[in-house]
Amino acid sequence: MRQIFLVSACLAGGMFLSACEDKDASTVERAFQDVNVVDETDLNDVMLTAADPNEAVDYFARTLQGNADRIDLQRGMAKSLVRAKRNVEAATTWKKVTSMEGATNDDMVDLADALIRNGDWEAARTALDKVPPTHETFKRYRLEAMVADANKDWKRADSFYEIAVSLTTRPAGVMNNWGYSKLTRGDYAEAERLFGEAIRQDQALFTAKNNLVLARGAQRNYSLPVIPMGQVERSQLLHTMALAAIKQGDVATGEGLLREAISTHPQHFEEAVRSLRALEGA
């Protein structure tokens, strides 16, 4: 009788241990699955920021094999294609993202961004029209301003630029765009003001410095503005000013500015030299 009891106890103990082992195994497996999810998320983030854009595209293309229904991976692919400047593919992928379950208003805005990069302004406008007015983000209004600019709807463009500036702590880029919009309209004084504001926000923004010189040149003001600039930047801005003067018909002033640009540059300034030779030849 005692032997039967011992056998039963051993069997029960074995079953208990087996159950524990199964439970431990499933717990470990779930733990590893959680680790894999975290690792994959981290890797996705790395690919979207630090990796070479084309390497990131290859990574997401591989990961999407068998996982085409995962919207996070499709987003990663779309963003990587934008970074790689593969704009046609990016627009196509963003369209796919916006058609998937779980798509957001930000996805539609990113689609509009890709369409603008692809030069498809009308499609970008259609995409933005699908975004509800309550979705108030810097990117949305910056793109709205650009689309309004493309349609020469200046009133809407100014309104959207103003809203976009108020929604970011780094407005230099949008101020530069707004200034360029004013420059194309012939409002040179306001363009000059906006370019100056952009430079005050970001002293390294050379595009705004160059545009500021263009705005001053359009007003026949051929003196360089008092802004932070290195020696190479100074020579480049003098070259831009020279071309603006020549375009205005002030050829002698332009020639003098070209010579100053060449002498200011710490190395050989081939572009300015070619401009001067072309002027002398003419």
From TrEMBL:
Q: Which PROSITE patterns match?
A: PROKAR_LIPOPROTEIN
State the protein's name.
Tetratricopeptide repeat protein
User: Coiled-coil intervals in this record?
Assistant: none
Q: Which InterPro entries match?
A: TPR-4, TPR-like_helical_dom_sf
The residue range of the signal peptide is none
